[in-house]
């Protein structure tokens, strides 16, 4: 879900010469980003090192014709189109254009000043062209889709030099359950500044659309609870209801113990659902949701390790729909029905060499690119994630511990506490408390100690072989 704080356009703009000089250095392969805002520097890193976008690109590519999106997202596109049309006269008066794009960065519609639209057409800032970061580099629409906050991109902050005459601001609307982007609204100006009112326009349009999605998500949660009650009345198996993101909406007594969540407590509102802290289960639930969205008759099963269990537990997934829209799955424990889900390479065997992802951290005006072995553990602190590394304590570029945990899947990291993810290869000692609680002593001069929560203790014992 997008951060609905008002999009305030920074009063102090970075000096154009400073940003352009940093852009030149970064394009040459250097990592010095002095004078560049952190969100822009991280976008440059993605464009150069992850996506390989050519900075000499002069126009956006044609969007993929066959873009898969859920039918209910059409409602979001229509709502954003209505919001955009309501301010088109004001945007036109300041020489701007407003665009709506889908989650792939494909522009669906454009309105605004006729002269500016003619300049935009030369760069393919027009319907049916793609403005995702992976296609067109740092820009208002693409960068907003990559982050959880509204963004402003000015001049040389754009990755492609041909777009340095533009200033744009974008805000993405995200699914309140899966947190995946649904659409993005953007305002662009050519060789001029955005008006101060632009932030209010964007935030208001996004917040109203987000409210509609929250209401639909609560209705979906209520439908899941109803389906759970119906299944409980017809079957003797232990049952839980999970939303498409793998969070628990309701679980019976036995399932609640296995999942480590409260028993028989419905949570139709997505803001109060429970994360079972079982990566294998969450991954399986997301796979099941994807399969069921394409085939409503799909049923599948797999085996996962659960809390307080030394052996894997068979589970089956059965999708639940509301007005043709997938709202989640009923999970039955002890049953194996339907298609067998592909087995993941998680667990102890996941710590082989492979092609491990880079972990991006920040230190003052520089990005620090870390290999997983250089990181001992990650700790959430308020809205930030901090990394304990061989180079000291660094702020992670990834804004949430849950997201970092997903990014490091298969790299030998394990969630051991709601505030900690540890590199299992950096654990040197395991300390047992008086009541059997565990703490991990990490390597390094500080011998940092990381607590293990009771619900995560079985997984830690299993992975460390203790």
UniProtKB/TrEMBL annotation:
Keyword Oxidoreductase: no
PROSITE patterns: HTH_LYTTR
Highest taxon in the source lineage: Bacteria
A Pfam family matched in the record: LytTR
Domain HTH LytTR-type: 359-466
InterPro entries according to UniProt: GAF-like_dom_sf (IPR029016), LytR-like (IPR046947), LytTR_DNA-bd_dom (IPR007492)
UniProt keyword list: DNA-binding
One GO MF term attached to the UniProt entry: DNA binding
Region span, Disordered: 338-358
PANTHER family in the cross-refs: STAGE 0 SPORULATION PROTEIN A HOMOLOG (PTHR37299:SF1), TRANSCRIPTIONAL REGULATOR-RELATED (PTHR37299)
Name listed for the protein in its UniProt record: DNA-binding protein
Taxonomic classification: Bacteria, Bacillati, Actinomycetota, Actinomycetes, Pseudonocardiales
């Amino acid at each position: 879900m997008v951060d609905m704080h008002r999009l305030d356009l920074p009063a102090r703009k970075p000096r154009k010469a400073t940003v352009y000089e940093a852009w030149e250095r970064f394009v040459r392969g250097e990592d010095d980003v002095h004078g560049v805002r952190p969100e822009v520097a991280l976008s440059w890193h993605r464009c150069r090192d992850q996506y390989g976008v050519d900075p000499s690109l002069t126009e956006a590519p044609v969007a993929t014709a066959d873009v898969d999106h859920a039918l209910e997202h059409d409602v979001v596109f229509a709502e954003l189109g209505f919001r955009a049309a309501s301010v088109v006269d004001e945007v036109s008066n300041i020489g701007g254009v407003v665009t709506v794009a889908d989650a792939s960065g494909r522009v669906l519609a454009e309105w605004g000043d006729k002269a500016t639209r003619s300049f935009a057409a030369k760069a393919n800032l027009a319907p049916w062209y793609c403005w995702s970061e992976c296609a067109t580099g740092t820009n208002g629409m693409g960068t907003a889709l990559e982050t959880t906050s509204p963004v402003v991109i000015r001049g040389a902050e754009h990755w492609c030099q041909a777009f340095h005459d533009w200033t744009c601001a974008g805000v993405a609307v995200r699914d309140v359950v899966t947190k995946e982007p649904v659409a993005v609204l953007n305002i662009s100006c050519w060789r001029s500044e955005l008006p101060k009112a632009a932030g209010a326009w964007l935030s208001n349009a996004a917040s109203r659309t987000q409210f509609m999605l929250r209401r639909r998500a609560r209705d979906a949660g209520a439908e899941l609870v109803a389906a759970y009650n119906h299944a409980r009345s017809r079957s003797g198996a232990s049952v839980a209801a999970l939303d498409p993101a793998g969070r628990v909406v309701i679980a019976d007594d036995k399932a609640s113990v296995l999942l480590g969540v409260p028993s028989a407590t419905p949570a139709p509102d997505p803001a109060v659902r429970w994360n079972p802290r079982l990566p294998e289960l969450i991954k399986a639930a997301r796979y099941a949701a994807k399969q069921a969205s394409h085939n409503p008759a799909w049923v599948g099963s797999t085996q996962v390790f659960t809390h307080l269990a030394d052996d894997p537990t068979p589970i089956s997934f059965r999708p639940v729909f509301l007005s043709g829209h997938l709202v989640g799955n009923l999970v039955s424990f002890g049953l194996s029905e339907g298609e067998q889900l592909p087995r993941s390479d998680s667990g102890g065997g996941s710590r082989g060499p492979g092609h491990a992802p880079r972990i991006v951290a920040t230190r003052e005006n520089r990005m620090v690119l870390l290999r997983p072995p250089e990181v001992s553990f990650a700790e959430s602190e308020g809205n930030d994630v901090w990394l304990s590394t061989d180079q000291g304590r660094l702020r992670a570029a990834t804004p949430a511990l849950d997201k970092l945990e997903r990014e490091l899947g298969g790299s030998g990291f394990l969630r051991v506490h709601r505030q900690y993810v540890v590199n299992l290869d950096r654990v040197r000692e395991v300390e047992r408390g008086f009541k059997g609680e565990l703490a991990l002593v990490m390597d390094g001069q500080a011998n940092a100690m990381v607590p293990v929560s009771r619900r995560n203790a079985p997984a830690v014992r299993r992975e460390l072989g203790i």
